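does this look right to u?? zinc ion version
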Amino acid sequence: MFRRPLILAFLLTIVHTCARAQERMIQAGIFRDRQLTQVIVRGTSSPIEVQIDGKPAGQVGSKDAVRISVQGDRLSASSLDRHFPHGRRITFRSTGRGLLRVGTGKPVIERDYPGSITISTANGALLVVNDVALDDYVAGVVQSEAGNHKGVEYYKLQAVSCRTYAITTARRHINEGFNLCDRTHCQVYKGACRLDSIKKAVRATKNLVVVDADIRPIHATFHSNCGGETTNAEDVWSKPESYLVSALDTFCLHEPHAQWRTDMPRTAWLTYLKDSFGLDTMNAATVEAVTSFDPRCRSLYLDGAHPSISLLKVRADLGLNSALFSIRTENGVVILDGRGFGHGVGLCQEGAMHMARLGIPFTDILHHYFAEVHLVDQGAIEFFKDE
Ligand SMILES: [Zn+2]
Ligand SMILES: [Zn+2]
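got this back:
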């Protein structure tokens, strides 16, 4: 066990010394939802330089483009005025400040990427990898995942979570020749960030990652709206986590997904409970319990029902927005009045966005949703990993 106060003091002192360490790179596998047989690469505003199997193969002007396709286990590449020698690996880099525009065959998708692009073959298709500075990757992910028009404090929060996640999962696709894919499996990444507010948030949080009380990077789990109370990790996934503990939240109460309602015939509700849980529908007290239920706080089971009825299972079976709801009956109709949207563990997105709009610093938002966490320099994690 670490001696925490000492360690944290130490971490704070190395935050600044590590800040100027060499920029960390991420190799992102891109267009991983496609089997690519043809790709077109061009510079957005500057000429690009081409390397084949590590050797310089000339430049291509910004009005031209290189078309790459699979030829057996090699690559065939040509621009308007020349054919490049066949190779196993082609790398493109911008000669100026421009980005690299990568386009796919049909259906055509074009995206712009910072850093360099390396293309090789894998299983008869093209493997396209974007070698990108960590913070350019983080900015791209924040834009893809958080979208536009959020408060800058919200973007800072996203930036530290996304950086933490990227660093801790960077070996996930290592056997495929890259670090992270560009799908939800890792983090959605659609290339260069266009929003200055996001770039600013990424710079303002440079090198910062979030760790728990034992200096382990956290997994910043999130959901849409907690309905006023987040939930413990173990109540949803059976494994406790020191930073994922239930907390009250008033910031999301008037947001779009704060409330929901589902009506159904009383007979249908009782039949469902009988079929799925073996509820005795002839027992008046039991029937009363399951048709009139008003929990004061989050609970796991429907009070007073035997056998016990798991609210998580009810949510899953009926496709409800959340497992936080009360039950009342009117004229033969059972009404479920629900709160929130999602599993309720960790960060409540709508609450966090509301806090950010109020100008609450992202560090306070972080501590509101995650218990006993700390922001430290990314180098600190590696330091302790090496130890
Ligand atoms: Zn992945
Ligand atoms: Zn909330």
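The two ends are 13 Å apart (CA to CA). idk if thats expected tbh
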